[in-house]
Amino acid sequence: MKLCVVIAVVLVVGCQAHSWMSCPPSLDTRPNRGGNTVGPCEREGKTKIVTEVNAGDRLKVGWTSNNHAGGWVRLALVPDGQHKVYEHFEKNVLKIVCYGHDERKGRTAYGDCVHPCNARKGCEFMSNKYDGNRYDTTIKIPYNLKDGVYVLQYMSAMSGHKTFYYSCARLKISGGKPSLPCKRTGKAPVAYGCMAGMAIPLSKYEKNTKMGNFCFAPNGLGDQDADMRKVPVNPECDPRITCQLSVNSKACMKEDSMSKITNAWDPKQTCSGAVRPGPEPTCSDGIKNNGEQMVDCGGPECDACYEEPTEPEDMRIYSSLDFTQKDWEDGNINLRAVVTISKEAHNWTYTMFFTKPVNIKTYWGCKVISSNEYKTIWTFGPMPWTKHVKPGQKISLGFNGKFENDGERPQTVTKSFVEAA
Predict the structure, then answer these.
(1) Within a 10 A sphere around the Cβ of 134, how many other Cβ atoms?
(2) How do beta strands 377-381 and 93-98 pair?
(3) pLDDT at position 374, please?
(4) Residue 318: other Cβ atoms inside 10 A
(5) How far apart are CA 386 and CA 262, in angstroms?
(6) How confident is the model at residue 315 (pLDDT cuts 50, 70, 90)?
(7) Which residues contact 274 (CB under 8 A, 6 or more apart)?
(8) Which whole-number Å values give the CA distances from 92 to 29, 178, 183, 309, in the listed order?
(9) Cα 102–207–85 angle (5° rounding)?
(10) Which is more confidently placed, 128 or 404?
(11) Bridge partners, residue 396, by sequence
(12) What pLDDT, on the 0 to 100 scale, is given for residue 6?
């Protein structure tokens, strides 16, 4: 891969909002440019930049976080000249990936984080399909395209933004075989484990779209991410661009190698030695990766972080359990349960199972018996005056707690009220 143009360094001023594609270089490489909501591409800068690739190459595609978190990115590819029509991109989607968020504890809240938000630096690349929240991905250059110039489109509505932002890059593709049979039906694949945006749902990214007729194998259709561990042709590209985009430039400069980006118009790292994919993630590496729900547990590959509580029919002692949950962006949560007793019992337990940790701070009508180490399963028992229950009696319980607001609210997926020994 090579770029046809090298741009000089300028000083970036001000902190711009929203995001755009920075790897490969977009049509407008100004580091203080801001986002584009008109589409389908931004206005092109004075200098035309074309990234040269070959059929079968992998290409690193990244974007600046600009202090935002959550949402998706739709990537599409069309011949140059067709890029001025929205519908052409809609019918030639490559894939839909995560926009990204800072997965480090306490670093993402209300759809925002501090740029670069733990985005992946230059000389590193996404090599595992479950590691998609670091503001980049890689794509496979299709084998069936005739030689020529194409336009890669980025489309995203990150964080709480209610409109899409667009960015494009020109690619000169060589070595294709247009005679390959590559007809596809259906929509493009969607990445696993993305934090949802706060305003625009995934369905709007997919509306009126289909996957393009692309071949990702030398002799046919293939899977575009089957060789994701292959080093892309542009690993040195650093999509983080500059700390001038951060709401806290001093903190940004302390992030890994940010100070080594010397040209925000063409952001890169100098790779020492051969670039290799990261180590394969495991369920015992002490890192929350590979789509895990928590460190080394949960997700598609590892054992569950906990066993979901059950409520055997012969232990159930209620006819109805009316439950309400209220939660707020500041991380506070209020839970209430009104249980109508159907069977006499001399002791009982009430258990709640959450999809993410909740720290119950106060409660009434009951006392804490136990919680698991993740604070996802809480069990409560009666106060002395509510221990003995009879049919028709109503038991009212209430709870106040806190959760980490990383853009995802806790769900109470199990509520169990049973007779206890």
Answers:
(1) 23
(2) unpaired
(3) 79
(4) 24
(5) 68
(6) confident
(7) none
(8) 24, 16, 11, 45
(9) 100
(10) 128
(11) 338
(12) 33
What pLDDT is stored for residue 4 in this prediction?
Answer: 47
Q: pTM for the complete prediction?
A: 0.75
**Structure tokens given for 196:** 């949802």
- Residue 145 makes CB contacts below 8 A (sequence gap 6+) with 55, 173, 176, 178, 214
Beta bridge mates, 419? 348
As a residue count, the chain comes to 421
The structure tokens 């055997």 sit at: 312
Q: What is the 3-state secondary structure (H, E, C) of the chain?
A: CEECCCCCCCCCCCCCCCCCEEECCCCCCCCCCCCCCCCCCCCCCCCCCEEEEECCCEEEEEECCCCECCCEEEEEEEECCCCCCHHHHHCCEEEEEECCCCCCCCCCECCECCCCCCCCCCCCCCCCCCCCCCCEEEEECCCCCCCEEEEEEEEECCCCCCCCEEEEEEEEEECCCCCCCCCCCCCCCECCCCCCCCCCCHHHHHCCCCECCCCCECCECCCCCCCCCCCCCCCCECCCCCHHHCCCHHHHHCCCCHHHCCCCCCCECCCCCCCCCCCCCCCCCCCCCCCCCECCECCCCCCCCCCCCCCCHHHECEEEEEEEEEECCCCEEEEEEEEEECCCECCEEEEEEECCCCEEEEEECCEEEEECCCCCEEEEECCHHHCCECCCCEEEEEEEEECCCCCCCCCEEEEEEEECC
Cα 226 to Cα 125: distance, rounded to the nearest angstrom: 15
> CB within 8 A of 397, min separation 6: which ones?
336, 337, 338, 339, 350, 363, 364, 365, 366, 380
Confidence at residue 311, expressed as pLDDT on a 0 to 100 scale? 66
Mean pLDDT of 330-352: 93
Q: State pLDDT tens for residues 215-253.
A: 999 999 999 999 999 999 999 999 999 999 999 999 999
Say which residues have a Cβ less than 8 Å from residue 214's Cβ, sequence separation at least 6.
77, 92, 94, 142, 144, 145, 182, 184, 224
Give the full edge-to-edge strand order of the sheet including 359-364.
318-327, 332-341, 394-402, 359-364
Query: What Rg value do the Cα atoms of the chain yield, rounded?
Result: 26
> What CA–CA distance (Å, rounded) separates 182 from 184?
6
Which residue in the block uniquely carries the two structure tokens 């959450």? 354
